[in-house]
Write a structure and sequence with these properties.
With about 850 residues, the protein is an alpha+beta fold. It contains 29 helices and 34 strands. Strands 10, 11, 12, 13, 14, 15 and 18 form a 7-stranded mixed beta sheet that branches. Strands 2-1-26-27 form a 4-stranded parallel beta sheet, with helices on one face. The protein is globular, with a radius of gyration of 35 Å. The structure holds zinc ion (2 copies). One zinc ion (ZN) binds near residues 470, 473, 514 and 515.
Length: about 850
């Protein structure tokens, strides 16, 4: 646009001072210029003939300010996006906001600001910070999940899930504060008490809640991990463990004293049915539905079970039920082992979880670590049913036959097990499972640790679940034509007593679309992980208003080529979003089965050896860094301090160091900018290295070596710290040539070429400075931000990058005697000959017998003589 050109020309004339690097001046100038060109970072449409590249950083929660972890995450993605533009790709680099969630509500309660106002205010501030840091996002695709034009599609998807039987309602436990008379999120439970009522113990209450049947895809979610070779192995392992597939058997133990075929049964999942004759107790989770019945008449027992529940909740909050001090209580009741009709006592134990398996286990203390520990503590019977002997081996003589307990090996055989004695474990598992099936008390089964995804939240700031409850018709989905169900804004969030939405009659009371009678609207909202499960599809066409996405557009952009974010999202976000992709694929909306082919998880940013946090007072604010050193130095330091996958310990002196380096680069290029301006064609010029003097050749060699290293880092392991140090070496080489430049010994074409390529190498890391220097090196009418952003990445010539001469150390009998210089490509025999012909060496070995020569390529010749 002509207006843009005018502004450009005007701003060029207002150049900051030449001799001093002034990041504030340079950055505000370029910030202003980039603001006038909103299409600068726009991707081409999916009909583009260019190769696409979709680079994505995880969208942030708009808490109000960027922290250093964000800056690092975005600096990595931004460098990659800029590199890919320069490599000629059609780059999609979007940004958005994970804008629903609890902190907005908390802040509403505390500061009396509406969550929407608070959230949108934070977004505008953080967006400003991102722009100030020079991150190259295509803002025309911005996605804000708390706005109806986005969350209506959450509702649309929910209705699809419901239609396919993948969304359902069931009773489930929630945290309940009796004082607030409302549900609490897990984060609002502090040491078992309410966050607002520190003295009030949180209760567990059963409420009808909505679930998404993620378990339907458990097997595929697990198998798909094998194909995700571009994901960190640790993330794949975490997901495998989370899905937690195990093969085993479900066996039913009858409850003693409850007669008839409909009598109460306790289903137990076990991977070791072969040890079932060694079961000496049944252990129930404290929340197992049977526990209430078993303890109904015994006040004392009920009290003890409640204690176990509390212990388990506490352990859960502390994050590790596995490490719990194991407690249990005998119910006084017995179950019957279906294999031998033996009575075994029923206990309730604090380490058994209701949400794993069936919430009940058979305890086999002789052959399980945990059961052994528990049995020892409560003096329960420990019965050996497995011997450390293989099938066919004769019994060991005498007392060695008894295994050391607990004995958990699988390559042994059965004893004390009736008809199954002398079978191997594997044979017994097959036969006993089959028998259980035939006799009707068990079956083979695969168990997953993965649970269905509970998406109901009894909170205000989330997507309303599009469901109605009609007295006549029951559960009625909101018709698609009535979407979006808009979240009402006139809500008193400070209310106690249930979900805030329950108190908005115009929201709750509706007409049933089926029968026209009165109905109530669902007041639960969706878990915010729903928002982030598919947001990256929306970026491909963010303003589509009749569908969540366009299949052809998505087919062009997906899978995401590179996804970048924190390892804390390795499980939930990445499982849910993989699930969502498979669901959309089965709806025929997308063709890909996984959202992202490559995933990178950056290391944390710490300070003084600890995580940055307000309470520790060690938070480094990006704003302060930018004010002090500039955005370029801040970003470059985030990449230079260490490789991106490692923990970064923030050092202000380090940022200062990067700032000094950028000053040096700035001064050098500015000083010689006229050379570049007068040798514009020099990018194509490749002076033959033989015609160059030693200094000039050194510059040429270093230039090509640097391009190679930085390119290799982008293509490979992303060790941007080594990229940046390579560029620093190049700048040093240029400074070392100042005298030769002054003496006219460096060809102008070479100097121009080196400067221009140095600036191109800097572009992905310090875009403000690079833009400024690029402008200095070109006449006004050649300067255009867009052209520079997409300027081809410099190529290197391997022949020019190669060292010309190599120095070999020459030893005699291991003792250093001198050095020789030879052309880099000299073959070994010739190097050895040259070493022996060297004057100093010859003098020492004269008249002696050469026994052998030890040769280390590129380094050393050791002559062994006698
Ligand atoms: Zn409370
Ligand atoms: Zn109805």
């Amino acid at each position: 646009m002509p207006e843009t050109k005018d502004i450009t020309a005007k701003q060029v004339s207002e150049r900051p001072s030449d001799d001093r690097y002034d990041p504030a001046g340079i950055e505000s100038k370029w910030y202003g210029r980039w603001e006038t060109d909103p299409a600068l970072y726009a991707a081409e449409p999916h009909t583009s003939k260019r190769k696409k590249y979709y680079v994505l950083e995880m969208l942030p929660y708009p808490s109000g300010v960027l922290h250093m972890g964000h800056v690092r995450n975005y600096a990595i993605g931004d460098a990659l996006a800029r590199y890919m533009w320069m490599k000629g790709h059609n780059v999609l680099h979007p940004m958005g906001w994970d804008a629903f969630g609890l902190p907005a509500e908390n802040s509403a309660i505390k500061n009396r600001t509406h969550p929407k106002q608070w959230t949108l205010g934070n977004i505008s501030h953080m967006k400003e910070q991102m722009k100030r840091l020079g991150f190259a996002y295509d803002w025309s695709r911005e996605v804000t999940t708390c706005l109806p034009d986005y969350y209506r599609w959450n509702q649309w998807f929910f209705l699809k899930l419901y239609e396919k039987g993948l969304a359902y309602r069931k009773k489930s436990k929630v945290n309940w504060c009796p004082e607030c008379a409302t549900v609490l999120a897990n984060e609002q439970v502090v040491n078992g008490c309410c966050w607002r009522h520190e003295e009030t113990r949180v209760e567990q209450r059963e409420l009808e809640q909505w679930f998404v049947r993620t378990t339907r895809y458990a097997e595929e979610l697990l198998r798909g991990l094998d194909q995700l070779e571009g994901w960190p192995e640790k993330v794949r392992t975490m997901q495998r463990n989370w899905i937690g597939r195990s093969e085993g058997a479900l066996v039913e133990f009858a409850l003693e004293g409850v007669a008839g075929p409909a009598g109460a049964k306790i289903a137990v999942f076990t991977t070791r049915i072969d040890t079932i004759f060694g079961a000496t107790s049944i252990q129930l989770a404290p929340e197992h539905p049977l526990v209430a019945d078993l303890t109904a008449d015994d006040h004392h027992l009920r009290g003890k079970v409640e204690e176990l529940v509390r212990e388990q909740i506490k352990a859960r909050e502390e994050g590790d039920v596995g490490a719990i001090e194991k407690h249990g209580v005998f119910t006084g009741r017995y179950a019957i082992n279906p294999f031998n009709q033996e009575r075994i006592p029923i206990w309730v134990a604090n380490y058994i979880l209701m949400d794993y398996g069936t919430g009940a286990i058979m305890a086999v203390p002789a052959h399980d670590e945990r059961d052994y520990e528990f049995a020892k503590k409560y003096e329960l019977e420990i019965r050996v049913v497995i011997l450390p002997r293989r099938v066919g081996e004769p019994p060991a003589s005498g007392e060695d036959e008894e295994p050391i307990l607990p004995y958990t090996h699988m390559d042994s055989l059965l004893i004390n097990s009736g008809d199954y004695n002398e079978l191997s474990n594997q044979e017994a598992i097959v036969k006993m499972t089959r028998d259980a099936e035939q006799r009707g008390f068990g079956k083979a089964t695969v168990n997953y640790r993965l649970k269905d995804w509970g998406i109901s939240r009894q909170r205000y700031w989330g997507t309303p679940i599009p469901i109605l409850y009609c007295e006549k018709c029951g559960v009625v989905p909101v018709p698609q034509s009535q979407l979006p169900v808009v979240l009402p804004e006139n809500v008193d969030i400070t209310l106690t007593g249930g979900s805030p939405l329950e108190h908005v009659p115009e929201f709750v009371n509706v007409t049933c679309p089926k029968c026209g009678g009165p109905a109530r609207r669902e007041t639960d909202t969706m878990d915010t992980f729903v928002d982030s499960s598919w947001y990256f599809y929306r970026y491909t066409d963010a303003h589509l208003n009749d569908r969540p996405l366009d299949t052809a557009t998505v087919a062009y952009w997906f899978e995401i080529d590179q996804y970048i974010g924190g390892v804390e999202h390795a499980i939930l976000h990445l499982i849910y979003s993989r699930f969502w992709t498979k669901f959309m694929r089965d709806l025929g909306m997308v063709r890909n089965g996984e959202p992202a082919l490559r995933l990178f998880t950056q290391g944390m940013v710490i300070k003084d050896g600890a995580k940055m946090s307000k309470s520790r007072g060690n938070v480094v604010s990006p704003d302060d860094m930018v004010a002090q050193f500039g955005a370029d130095s801040t970003r470059m330091y985030a990449l230079f301090a260490t490789s991106p996958d490692r923990e970064l310990d923030w050092q202000e002196t380090g940022v200062e160091g990067v700032h000094r380096f950028l000053s040096r680069a700035y001064r050098f290029v500015v000083r010689h900018a006229s050379v570049a301006r007068e040798n514009l064609g020099s990018t194509q010029v490749k002076p033959r290295k033989e015609t160059l003097g030693p200094r000039a050749r050194a510059i040429q060699r270093k230039l090509h070596q640097t391009i190679k290293r930085v390119t290799d880092d982008f293509q490979g392991r992303w060790h941007f710290n080594t990229s940046v140090s390579a560029i620093m070496e190049l700048v040093n080489e240029l400074y070392g040539a100042e005298q030769d430049i002054a003496a006219g010994k460096i060809p102008a074409g070479l100097l121009a070429d080196a400067q221009r390529k140095l600036v191109l190498l800097l572009a992905p890391f310090s875009p403000f400075l690079a833009s400024e220097l690029w402008e200095r090196m070109h006449p006004t009418d050649m300067v255009d931000s867009g052209v520079f952003l997409r300027h081809p990445w410099p190529e290197y010539d391997p022949a020019l990058a190669k060292e010309d001469e190599i120095t070999y150390a020459v030893q005699i009998n291991g003792k250093l005697r001198g050095h020789i210089m030879v052309p880099a490509d000299t073959p070994q025999p010739l190097v050895e000959k040259r070493a022996q012909a060297d004057e100093k060496i010859r003098a020492v070995i004269e008249g002696k017998q050469v026994l052998k020569i030890i040769f280390v390529q590129g380094k050393l010749v050791n002559i062994v003589v006698r």
